[in-house]
Amino acid sequence: MDRTSRRTRRGAVTGALTALALAVTGLFTGGAATAEAGTVEAGAVGAGTRAVPRHAVTGYWQNFDNGARVQKLGAVQNEYDIIAVAFADATATPGKVTFTLDSAGLGGYTVEQFKADIKAKQAAGKSVIISVGGEKGAVTVNDAASAVAFADSVYALMREYGFDGVDIDLENGLNATYMTRALKSLAAKAGPGLVLTMAPQTIDMQSPSNAYFKTALAVKDILTVVNMQYYNSGSMLGCDGKVYSQGTVDFLTALACVQLENGLAPSQVGIGVPASPRAAGGGHVAPDVMNRALDCLAKGTGCGTFKPSRTYPDIRGAMTWSTNWDATAGSAWSRSVGAHVHGLP
Question: What is the DSSP letter of 69?
Answer without folding.
Answer: P
